[in-house]
Structures are given as C-alpha cells and as structure tokens.
Design goal:
Blueprint: H1 3-32, H2 43-53, E1 61-64, E2 71-73, E3 78-82, H3 83-86, H4 91-109, H5 112-141, H6 144-181, H7 190-227
Parallel strand pairs: 1-3
Antiparallel strand pairs: 2-3
Helix pairs in contact: 1-7, 2-4, 4-6, 4-7, 5-6, 6-7
Length: 228
C-alpha cells in the first residue's frame, strides 16, 4: 500500500468523522431540547440577560429561520438565534444562546484568537473560493506550479479553521461559567449543557482535522510528482 493510498484512507476516515460529528450535534441538541431548564428562561431571555450583565446593552438578540443557524454577527454586532433556541426554554436553547453571547463578549474584550480570525477572514474567503480550482487544474494539466499555488491558498483556509478552535472552545467555556455564576442553570443541569456544547465543539475539531489531513495529502502529492 502506497503512502498516497494510506493518506487517502486517513482523509476519508476524517471525512466520516465530520459526518458523525454532525449527527452527534443534532442528536444531542434534539435530546436536550426536550428537557426544560429549571430557570424557565428562553434562549432569548438568557442571551439578553448575559449581554446586559456584561454591558452589551446595544447588542440585539434576533431570531433567525432554520435549525442550528445560531451565530454572532461581528459586523452588525448582533446575536442571532434560531427559532428553536430563541423561543424555547430547553437546556439546548439556553446552552446555545449562552455560547453565542460568549462570542459577543470575546468581541468586546478583543479576544486575541477572535481578532485574528476576523483579520484572516477576507483572505480566507478568497483563498477557499479559488483554491479548489487551482488544485484541480494543476492535477489535470500536470502543472505543479499551479497545484503548488492551490496548496498555498488552501493552507490559508486550514489556518482559519485551526484559529477557529480556540475561539469556539473559549466561547463554550465562558457560556458554562456564566450560566453557573448567574444561576441560569443548576448543578444537575450542567451535564446537559456540557453534552450540547461538547457535541458542537466536536464538529469544529472534525472539520479542522479533515482540512489538515487533506492539506497534508496535497503536499505529499506535490512532492511525489516533483520527484517523478
């Protein structure tokens, strides 16, 4: 078995992990969406309370269509929660709402990894759009320089995914601590919060691992072709 074949199998395994992670986060969210938080607060209530308590009175909390579409918009400076999170008072809802507020607090405090990710975004957005064409074109045409440029641009996208990891883990850590300190959840509810947030974090880890291994495969292909 050649090293290229081994790398392809490893990348495929990582890809399967990303699929499993997606199912895990959906399953975890669905399970704990059926368990109401003892505080009776909805995701919107939790987000508003956390933001106000951290001096972010000017950051709105807005509902957005879809499921698991929750996010913090750093440009508009708004916390947007999917309807199942915004209107419900489940463990899943309060966990996700607190996590997105964690990003808003990061923005306020100029958290290093978040600042870096924001600066990287324009370059990453361009690189991730053009890299696949350069990689494919380089392989089909046998142009190593073109393929090498594709690898370079793809590296920027991989770096962005790696920088995203501490941003997401930090937001989840903030969310857990804040909810406990503010009495939004009780000790018995921490298990559910951990399950929801850890499942979400797994999706980012799996995506970063897949991207990193794919990059390694491209690099091996490049040097193998160069040797030939």
């Amino acid at each position: 078995m050649t090293i290229n074949t081994i790398m392809l199998l490893v990348v495929l395994a990582a890809f399967v992990l990303t699929i499993v992670a997606q199912f895990a986060v959906k399953g975890s969210f669905k399970k704990w969406a059926q368990v109401n938080a003892s505080s009776g607060m909805t995701g919107r209530d939790v987000a508003r309370r956390i933001l106000d308590d951290n001096g972010l009175h000017d950051v709105p909390v807005e509902p957005v269509a879809g499921s698991l579409t929750d996010h913090y918009d750093p440009i508009s400076r708004a916390v947007r929660l999917s309807e199942p999170v915004y209107y419900e008072n489940s463990i899943s809802a309060v966990s996700v709402a607190a996590h997105e507020c964690g990003h808003a607090i990061q923005h306020k405090e100029a958290y290093g990894a978040l600042v870096l990710r924001h600066k990287m975004f324009p370059v990453t957005n361009f690189a991730s759009g053009i890299a696949p064409f350069l990689l494919l074109g380089g392989l089909l045409l046998g142009q190593l320089q073109l393929f090498g440029l594709g690898i370079l641009l793809y590296s920027a996208a991989v770096a962005f995914q790696l920088v995203t990891l501490p941003v997401e883990f930090n937001a989840s850590s903030r969310a857990k601590n804040i909810m406990v300190q503010m009495g939004i959840i009780r000790n018995l509810e921490e298990r559910g919060v951990n399950r929801v947030l850890n499942a979400a974090a797994l999706t980012y880890v799996a995506a970063a691992l897949y991207a990193l291994l794919e990059l390694l495969r491209f690099v091996i292909l490049f040097f193998s072709a160069n040797d030939d």
